[in-house]
Specification:
Layout: H1 2-12, E1 20-24, H2 39-54, H3 57-62, E2 64-68, H4 87-96, E3 100-102, E4 107-111, E5 114-120, H5 123-129, H6 143-154, E6 183-187, E7 193-197, E8 200-204
Helix pairs in contact: 2-4
Length: about 210
């Protein structure tokens, strides 16, 4: 929380504040699975996050805040796409930040003239683990660049077998990369990377707490 507050303090004092902030899970250090019983505490911490953001008057008035759940956040299951964070957890935050918007994972937004796709998943690790043949190093040996090329050619954010990553078929179109977006943000636990491929800017912002 302190690191985030430092970041917000910096943006609060710039001449023109950012119009959009995107928070991507996980929002809890422990997986919210069947053994997790601290939902009331998690709700309380979301409220504290709302207070921290709300203390920055200019950001609260002029910025929008998007919240996208991570793979270990609270939800009905681990299938994709994941629905937005439960209202029970977020309503305290929304009291402080009326501009907060809670989206599914993945999601596609239009930011002015740009279409941006956000996907929070430890995709690089899972793709490498499910890989049957090592990718060719003729053009590049960077695993992230191979990942970007794969999802771009497949036009799908998660081209994994259903046994590895179940998908709700009625909503599989949410994972499609058609029409092609301008930017893809892959929230991954691996190191920060950026790669421009066939006109698409794809990057992994990394973790703010590392």
């Amino acid at each position: 929380m302190r690191k985030l507050e430092t970041v917000l303090d910096g943006y609060e004092n710039v001449e023109v504040v950012p119009s959009l902030f995107v928070f991507m899970g996980n929002f809890c250090s422990h997986p919210c699975n069947l053994s997790f019983h601290s939902f009331s505490s998690l709700r309380l911490h979301f409220g504290k996050l709302g207070q921290i953001i709300g203390a920055h008057t200019r950001l609260k008035e002029h910025s929008r805040f998007l919240f996208i759940p991570g793979p270990d956040d609270a939800g009905p299951s681990t299938v994709l796409p994941r629905c937005a964070l439960p209202k029970y957890l977020t309503e305290e935050l929304q009291k402080h930040i009326p501009n907060a918007i809670f989206l599914s994972n993945p999601c596609r937004i239009k930011f002015y003239t740009q279409e941006i796709v956000f996907f929070r998943q430890d995709l690089l690790y899972r793709m490498r683990r499910s890989c049957l043949m090592a990718p060719s190093t003729e053009e590049t040996s960077d695993p992230f660049e191979h990942l970007v090329a794969t999802i771009t050619h497949q036009s799908h954010l998660c081209p994994l077998p259903l046994s590895v990553q179940p998908i709700i078929w009625n909503y599989d179109h949410c994972l499609h990369l058609y029409p092609t977006p301008h930017t893809i943000v892959l929230g991954d636990r691996s190191e920060q990377k950026a790669f421009n491929y066939t006109g698409i800017t794809c990057f992994n912002p990394g973790s703010v707490f590392k």
